[in-house]
Amino acid sequence: MPEGRFLVIIPTYNERENLPRVIPAVLAQDPRIEILVVDDASPDGTGVLADEMAAAEPRIHVLHRHGKAGLGKAYLAGFHWGLSRNFDLVFEMDADLSHPPDALPTLIESAARADVVIGSRYVDGRVTVVNWPMGRLLVSYFGSLYARVITRMPVRDATGGFICWNRRVLESVALDRVESNGYAFQIELKFRAWRRGFSLLEIPILFTERDTGESKMSKKIVREAVWRVWSLKLRDLFGRL
Predict the structure, then answer these.
(1) Residue 229 lies in a domain
(2) Helices (H), the chain
(3) In this predicted model, what pLDDT tens digit does every residue of 41-92 receive, in sequence order?
(4) Which positions ≥6 away from 57 have C-beta within 8 Å?
(5) Residue 92 phi, psi dihedral angles, 5° rounding
(6) Which of 8, 43, 124, 155 is most buried, by the most CB atoms less than 10 A from its CB?
């Protein structure tokens, strides 16, 4: 099992009701885990609550941003924060409990076998998603298939956002050149890692649709993923990735 310090990055925008649920569940998984809440100036007071929780628990940290700039930008800010503080493994995780906290130990253990570990909804020929509308499921499933066919990247859940990154990957993938957000961000970062020769491993998780708060998915995010996949492919072909 990997040794060291582990950072779980949780981006937030109006997740005040979910923070008291997800943070204790994450911290309970491993004493080496710390959490960075990256809040985009949530008008519902999520950032204020995160500060209060951090004041009571030294394993919780908060990074405040000035406005809603997208999931990808939030994670990039979190990655830079974690790398500058020498965390060995850095995780992406949603605030809404759609990603199961009790899968974190398996991701940590699997990090001894791969550079990037992906909590996958579509591995081994199964779809492990609960309470998603059929339309949302089809967009996600075929979006991942679309990305895999075009890029040839050997990942079933290319759009998945429950991921364990070894710090050496994040140090090597040119984070400052990543431009995507949403689904496209998840595809781009995996693609950059794979094209640099890092190993990607998918492990099955049970993904459960949020029961509190509102989804941040939009048609704009889907459209970005559609054209960004071709952009990544072409930039890679011409050596500009």
Answers:
(1) yes
(2) 19-27, 46-56, 71-84, 104-110, 134-151, 167-170, 182-195, 219-237
(3) 999 999 999 999 999 999 999 999 998 888 999 999 999 999 999 999 999 9
(4) 27
(5) -100, 135
(6) 8
Q: What's the rounded Cα separation, in Å, for the pair 41 and 89?
A: 26
CA–CA dist 213, 211 (Å, integer): 7
Task: Provide the domain limits for residue 17.
Answer: 6-237
CATH code for position 19: 3.90.550.10
Whole-structure pTM value: 0.90
Total domains present in the chain: 1
Give domain status of residue 1, yes or no.
no
Determine, yes or no, domain membership for 154. yes
Give backbone dihedrals phi and psi of 166, rounded to 5 degrees, phi first: -70, 140
Report pLDDT digits (tens) over 111-130: 999 999 999 999 877 777 87
107 domain-assigned: yes
